[in-house]
Design goal:
alpha/beta; Immunoglobulin-like; eight-stranded parallel beta barrel; five-stranded antiparallel sheet; 15 helices; 29 strands; elongated
């Protein structure tokens, strides 16, 4: 085989139409070998090529006789000295960090571990077992794809509705998705799924991790899996499990999915895991970065580099102090935008990326690079604003340009609707966009990603059916998963046929959905909540790749009614610009109007006083939004006005009367939504009734000019 010098850039395996350039970074290696394989399960390479060229710590070569579809990996030589942070072992076949496709999954074996375990369970000596038969091979791809006509929707943040979903879980059981593509990227792009998303008003899907990931050995040996995918081992490679084939088909099928969703006006946001990898702690396998340059890519304990600094709870954290680690992440992000056409990212455990020293640095290098990048600064950026390290809860502290999963919204809304006292003040903040969290840093309302449920935790139905987690199927004796669910079962734990309990649960679910639709900020639905999906009380179903987590599309009458309600409330949101403002409502008089943009009302119709806000026994609140307070504009800069709206919430067992405000222009109040199933009932001229544990939305219809 001919071997030419090649170039140090770009990193990875790059087909140029004539041959393939291979380039890999390692600062501390003493030698690198490129290994070519004939088959995905081969334990012995067909060719082993020593890379002679090294420029700026990048090892490289060019093979003019190699074509797309070639399987490859690396063996990297260097010191095996864990006490110094080095874990080189050429017996371990390594996955290219820049691989665009990975042709299979891990087969667990002791050969995957670069050390031999001593009696004290420490990695004392090098393991000389060849791991090649157990490691998935990288695949050289032809990146050509017909993107012609693809236009990113670029939906403005304030008009965005996010739908968090799992590629497989959403589509696996759908009867109208062609059977051969269920559970795949192409299944997600099927007509049945797109029609469903459009009917909900969804403008963006947020996909649980699709970077190629590993299943933990402990899970595999218990017959379980890493269903969610938060265990990345390939930051450039779409996971092969969601594709029809492993020899590069995953790349083309992912691109087809994106293009099809774009044509329907739906953006694609990826949940990305750059805070750690699947290699775990000091006793983990050697699969990629650990064997390429452990001391560069991982955050090591400065007092004892044998061990890892762990801000993630997974055993390791990537080393954001090293420029090559930051480059790996930035190159990956840019690749997914420029080559795969995705529209944004949700960063798992985002504070880890800001830990340059030990504490979270809000103005860290990572954020500086993102903000100046001409590609990444234009896409949607969402932070999960917490990790397990000191000071890791950072809700509200990310910089301008970032949105955040608002955990305070989730908790406050849950507590209010389960009936907790003293929550009116907190709920008011969440309904109006959480200005108490975001306004101080000059961030807009859409800094807040509002959600009640997500993949992690109870589903919406389980939130109203269980007061305790039921995670025994995970095999951890119910110790896993949070105990802080703020849930209520409304009479009995779990399933029931009691019509009274079922009716109450459905009302509370409608309360959650309507609250989400009518809150300022960006709403995020978790897939299947609009159908009343259950996981039977499992609030940590990360290991369940089965009917526990797959959406069941065989709907009962109650579920169809829930779906219809969800569609209706999000259609109301879409039609009323005051519910999706860009800036915060200020409680001040609107220009050209005699009324405030926002007024908080007591049940007797007057504005809330300081004493009212301090009343711990208060359970009912009115939110009056002036229709002239819309700050939305059309493509020509003309203001888009809406209706004045009155939202009333009641989280107590008593029916309450609510005196309706009298506005300056003659007209009448019309009911748009009532979670106690009173839709279409008009309030009288002066007041309306609010059922126990219910939400009412009223629209003010001005009288015709001749009748005012």
């Amino acid at each position: 085989m001919r071997v030419w010098p090649g170039q140090p850039y770009p990193l990875g395996a790059t087909w140029d139409g004539e041959g393939v350039n291979f380039a890999i970074f390692s600062e501390n290696a003493t030698g690198v070998e490129l290994c070519l394989f004939s088959g995905p399960d081969d334990a012995v390479e067909s060719s082993r090529i020593a890379l002679r060229e090294r420029n700026d710590q990048i090892w490289h070569c060019y093979l003019p006789d190699v074509r797309p579809g070639q399987l490859y990996g690396y063996r990297v030589h260097g010191p095996y000295s864990p006490d110094d942070g080095h874990r080189f072992n050429p017996s371990c076949l390594l996955i290219d960090p820049y691989a665009k496709a990975i042709g299979g999954t891990i087969t667990w074996s002791d050969a995957l571990f670069g050390y031999q375990v001593g009696g004290d369970q420490q990695d004392l000596t090098m393991n000389h077992s060849n791991s090649a038969g157990h490691v998935p091979k990288c695949v050289v791809i032809d990146s050509a794809f017909t993107w012609s006509g693809d236009r990113p929707p670029r939906v403005p943040w304030h008009r965005t509705v996010i739908y968090e979903c799992h590629v497989k879980g959403l589509t696996k059981r759908h009867p109208h998705v062609p059977e051969h593509v269920r559970g795949t990227y192409l299944g997600l792009a099927s007509d049945a799924i797109i029609d469903h998303l459009i009917s909900l008003g969804v403008t963006a899907v947020e996909l649980l991790p699709v970077h190629h990931f590993a299943i933990d050995r402990a899970l595999a040996e218990r017959g379980l899996t890493n269903y969610w995918g938060y265990n990345s081992i390939g930051f450039f490679a779409p996971d092969v499990r969601y594709a029809s084939g492993a020899m590069g088909q995953q790349v083309g099928e992912f691109k087809s999915m994106v293009k099809t969703l774009h044509s329907a006006g739906i953006e694609v946001i990826l949940d990305v895991v750059y805070n750690h990898t699947a290699e775990g702690n000091q006793l983990g396998p050697t699969l990629s970065l650990r064997g390429i340059d452990n001391a560069t890519y991982y955050r090591l304990d400065p007092k004892n580099p044998r061990y890892y600094v762990d801000f993630t709870g997974t055993g390791n954290s990537l080393n954001m102090q090293h420029p090559r680690t930051i480059q790996l992440i930035m190159d990956s992000l840019r690749y997914w935008v420029t080559e795969m056409h995705v529209d944004g990212f949700r960063f798992d455990l985002a504070p880890v990326l800001a830990r340059e020293l030990f504490e979270v640095n809000r103005l860290g290098t990572f954020f500086d690079i993102i903000h100046q990048d001409p590609v990444l600064s234009r896409v949607k950026l969402i932070a999960e604003p917490w990790d397990i390290g000191p000071g890791g809860y950072q809700v509200g502290n990310f910089p301008i340009g970032w949105a955040e999963w608002n955990g305070k919204y989730r908790d406050d809304v849950r507590r209010f609707w389960r009936g907790d006292a003293g929550m009116v003040n907190d709920l008011a903040s969440r309904l109006s966009g959480s200005s108490d969290i975001y306004q101080w840093s000059n961030r807009p309302t859409y800094a807040s990603i509002n959600f009640v449920t997500a993949h992690d935790g109870f589903t919406l139905r389980d939130l109203t059916s269980y007061e305790r987690k039921h995670n025994l199927p995970n095999g951890e004796e119910n110790r896993d998963g949070t105990d802080a669910n703020y849930s209520r079962n409304w009479g009995v734990e779990g399933p029931t046929h009691d019509p009274r309990i079922l009716a109450r649960r459905e009302r509370i679910m409608r309360n959650f959905l309507a609250t989400l639709a009518f809150s300022e900020g960006v709403p995020m639905l978790s897939h299947g909540d609009e159908l009343g999906r259950t996981q039977l009380g499992n609030n940590n179903a990360y290991a369940q790749d089965n009917e526990t987590t797959w959406v069941d599309w065989n709907l009962e009458a109650r579920q169809r009614a829930m779906l219809d309600f969800t569609r209706r409330v999000f259609a109301i949101r879409h039609a009323n610009p005051v519910l999706r403002r860009r800036g915060f409502l200020r409680g001040q008089v609107v220009d050209g109007s005699s009324t405030k943009d926002l007024s908080w009302l007591h049940p007797d119709g007057r504005e809330m006083t300081d004493a009212d806000w301090r009343d711990h026994d208060s359970h009912i609140l009115g939110m009056l939004i002036n229709g002239d307070a819309s700050d939305d504009i059309d493509d020509h800069g003309r203001p888009i006005k809406g209706d004045s709206l009155l939202l009333i919430v009641n989280n107590q067992e008593e029916m309450r009367r609510f005196t309706l405000p009298v506005l300056a222009v003659a007209g009448e109040w019309e009911e748009m939504a009532h979670t106690a199933a009173r839709q279409g009932v008009s309030p009288d001229e002066h007041e309306t009734t609010v059922a126990p544990f219910s939400l009412v939305l009223l629209r003010y219809a001005p009288a015709p000019p001749g009748e005012r």
